[in-house]
Amino acid sequence: MSRSELSHPAVDAVLSTAATLLGMEVVFIGGLTEDTFTFERIHAAEACGWEVPPEGHTMDRTDSLCHRLLAGAPSVTCDAAGDPSYGAAGATATFGITSYVGVPVHDAAGHVVGTLCGVDRDHVNVDADTLDVLRQLAAVVSAHLGPIVEEGVVIRRVPDGGWSVGMERTGDLTSAMVLADLLAGELPPAGRPARSDEPLDEIGQLRLSVKQLEHALAARVVVEQAIGVLTERQHSSPRDAFERLRKVARSRGRKVHDLAKEVVLSATETAVPLPPELAGRR
């Protein structure tokens, strides 16, 4: 897991939602190796009032609270200095941490590669419902890191966080455009949970936000795969491919997500019918 992988609007949405959920001064995604802990992505409150380490700041793994979490310490503490599991962690004194909450982030193989955490210098209680939503948010990060290419589809993830087909790739700008459309509700995939007419409490609203983000992330994968196919097929830029896909879908009253699935299928099934604007060279 690297900052390039995590520099994506889906991860931004996770951090923003986690910050609202926890109400803590700092929310971050940490990356761990055998020896080190790194603050990969950080979301700090505007009125934080303390010096937050910069993204990329690395410390000895054993000094981090996350190391203790992954060694079996409780997921939550609101008295880190007096907690036998967290009191001896170097970060507790270094950053003046009083409250901590953390959950693991897994890669596609199920290995722990990082953590999604919140810290605060004051006493902040985190209940079981809140912790459950935080775990769901960590699962969204895990899904973003995981493999999204089915066998037979010639689309690959590249180290900088984009997608490639042949020598072409989609960039972060296109990813941001795709996810923005999906989160705006214009392109909901099948099975997206319906909004309830009943008023939701704060935790309920956040659970709904997580579900919407999960579905938008799943739909983004298919749309970005289609962009990769069109980029190679029509020798265009990823952004032009996305604009063409969206324009064709709107002109035919289709959902971009549905049309994107047909474009991806057409990469291996040449008999799949496509609008002439998307057929291009086979």
Short description:
This protein is of the alpha+beta class and 282 residues long. The protein is built from ten helices and nine strands.
Structure description:
There is one protein chain. With about 280 residues, this protein is of the alpha+beta class. It has two domains: about 5-145, GAF domain (Beta-Lactamase); about 155-280, no CATH class. The chain has helices at about 5, 10-20, 65-70, 90-95, 130-145, 170-185, 200-235, 240-250, 255-265, 275-280, and strands at about 25-30, 35-45, 60, 75, 100-105, 110-120, 155, 165, 170. The strands form two sheets. It has a six-stranded antiparallel sheet with strand order 3-2-1-6-5-4. Strands 7-8-9 form a three-stranded antiparallel sheet. The protein starts with a helix and ends with a helix.
Strand order of the largest sheet: 3-2-1-6-5-4
Indicate the proportion of strand residues.
Answer: 15-25%
Order of helices and strands: HHEEEHEHEEHEEEHHHHH
Task: Report the C-alpha radius of gyration, rounded.
Answer: 21 Å
Count of all domains: 2
**CATH class descriptor of the largest domain:** Alpha Beta
Mean pLDDT across residues? 77
Classification by helices and strands: alpha+beta
Shape: elongated
Name of the CATH architecture of the largest domain: 2-Layer Sandwich
Count of DSSP helices? 10
**How helical, in percent, are the residues?**
40-55%
Question: What is the fold-level CATH name, i.e. the topology of the largest domain?
Answer: Beta-Lactamase
In CATH, the homologous superfamily of the largest domain goes by the name: GAF domain
* Low-confidence runs of at least 5 consecutive residues: 147-157, 163-173, 186-200
End-to-end separation: 36 Å
Largest sheet properties: 6 strands, antiparallel
Number of strands: 9
